[in-house]
């Protein structure tokens, strides 16, 4: 079957001018011509046009497309598979956008007029999440799929914490400690209790001032919550340590708290990759783990033993830590191997 240039333009959605340009630059030269000089495109020409349009969809220039097509052994099946994957990603993003817009639509139907900021924040936050998380990660991130009701819980909690911080209530007070406990519980739930999700969320928060503004969580507010959460744990450690030991722990506890999520994320990745505690990867993780542990526990093995005893006997100390028994078991073995 042979198609004239006008027929091919109509059926492909391109213009005759575009097809003439492709011919002029040698990108798509028709295989035949009629007696009257009309360009005639056969099956192979149309397959090549499909490749050209697919590569344009990937953002390649015409010059780059020409160079790619000039390569030998370029399987068309692989190119179509790439195009399918790209379309799947676009469909997924469109579906997520539809879900967000549906929430705003429900607000309108119930007589709640969304502010312009609601619309902009929805779109802006979606774009930010897409930059930091893969599609597979977003599928495992409840925070990304949360409903308007779940978002409202965060909005209320953030406002309550900010009110205490602005009023000068110290983190050791019972009120911010209770709110910090709720905060960590919600955060663990909304990150699927996965330290890798938490580490990426922290990275996004640190790098995106507009995110901090849109969700109302400034670095100072986050630090206030971390210190309040730490105060609850310090109250437990105090029962296990001497006054001198406790003074050192209090002075240093939380100073490097933001480094723990990434370390646990790396440990979780190592476990999933099949690394063993005695592998070079396991030993490197154990060294980082002990460095952070000593930063607040000091160098005395007796103090270390007391803190470990507290961790074994007090479940509250592990609450909101993003460390499950699999991860802790791996690190215990890695640390023991390092000491040996």
Layout of secondary structure:
Blueprint: E1 3-4, H1 5-12, H2 16-24, E2 32-33, E3 39-41, H3 43-57, H4 62-69, H5 76-109, H6 116-132, H7 135-139, H8 148-166, H9 174-190, H10 195-207, H11 209-215, H12 219-237, H13 243-252, H14 260-272, H15 280-297, H16 301-313, H17 325-339
Antiparallel strand pairs: 1-3, 2-3
Helix pairs in contact: 3-4, 3-5, 5-6, 8-9, 9-12, 10-14, 14-15, 15-17
Description of the molecule:
The protein has 3 domains: 3-69, Multidrug-efflux Transporter Regulator, Chain: A, Domain 2 (Orthogonal Bundle), CATH 1.10.1660; 114-233, no CATH class; 238-340, no CATH class. Helix content is 71%, strand content 2%. It contains 17 helices and 3 strands. Strands 1-3-2 form a 3-stranded antiparallel beta sheet. It is elongated. The model has no long low-confidence stretch (mean pLDDT 85).
Q: How many domains comprise the coordinates?
A: 3
Largest sheet: 3 strands, antiparallel
**What's the gyration radius in Å?**
29 Å
- Relative strand content: under 5%
Q: Give the helix level as a range of percent.
A: over 70%
- pLDDT < 50 runs, ≥5 residues: none
Features:
17 helices, 340 residues, mainly alpha, Multidrug-efflux Transporter Regulator, Chain: A, Domain 2, elongated
Q: What is the gist of this entry?
A:
With 340 residues, the chain is mostly helical.
